[in-house]
Write a structure and sequence with these properties.
Length: 216
């Protein structure tokens, strides 16, 4: 093991650049999946005729497919249909779709957990269905959804490493490249990657616990 060589500034900068790509992909995917999941989950909860059934089929289909397959499909199949994206955006779209389906189920479950009596009381007081959903149900459901959502976002961050298969220059891809230069660099590079992943994910876990405690 050559820690001094592996952590020389050019190599360290190379690994940190990969980590920056990881954070960029994760950050964009978290935003897009949250928006997509919230919309899909709300549509499923409202049980709009036909539309809710279509959304349910789409969500259940995506949730039961491997993430790697979705990334492959977007990166390899869509260009053949005339839809071309960079490796970066192929990864973001794949993660957003997959995690969005997961978030949709969390949102639907969170909304369903609100007692029916509150909905009936709000409607009887003159509030419309959308006012009841936005002002009564959703704020309470968000409190209950926050912990599982943060856990899902932590999984998303770790899942960015799957993009190594389509050569996205993220952290694990750069670890592999550095390890290919010298076998003595493999363990130091993997240890640094482990520390970086741990710091970010542990920080998110602490924030989730504090958020849950405050909401409680």
């Amino acid at each position: 093991m050559d820690f001094s060589g592996a952590y020389a500034w050019p190599n360290l900068r190379f690994l940190l650049h990969g980590f920056l790509i990881t954070l960029q992909v994760a950050g964009l995917s978290i935003v897009f999946s949250f928006v997509l999941g919230t919309v899909l989950g709300t549509v499923r909860y409202t049980r709009i005729p036909i539309l809710s059934q279509i959304v349910a089929v789409i969500v259940d289909t995506i949730r039961n497919l491997p993430l790697l397959l979705i990334i492959f499909f977007i990166h390899i199949v869509l260009p053949q249909l005339g839809i071309k994206m960079s490796v970066f955006w192929s990864t973001v779209v794949g993660l957003s779709l997959f995690e969005g389906a997961m978030i949709a189920e969390i949102v639907r479950s969170g909304l369903k957990s609100i007692e029916r009596g509150q909905v009936e009381a709000a409607r009887s007081s003159g509030l419309s269905y959308m006012q009841t959903l936005g002002g009564i149900i959703m704020p309470q459901a968000l409190r209950r959804m926050s912990p599982p959502m943060v856990s899902q976002f932590i999984s998303l961050l770790k899942d960015t490493s799957l993009a190594i298969i389509i050569s996205l220059p993220e952290l694990m891809h750069n670890v592999q490249i550095l390890g290919g230069q010298s076998f003595d660099y493999v363990i130091p590079a993997l240890l640094l990657a482990a520390v970086l992943y741990f710091v970010i994910n542990y920080t998110l876990s602490i924030l989730a616990r504090r958020l849950e405690a405050r909401m409680t």
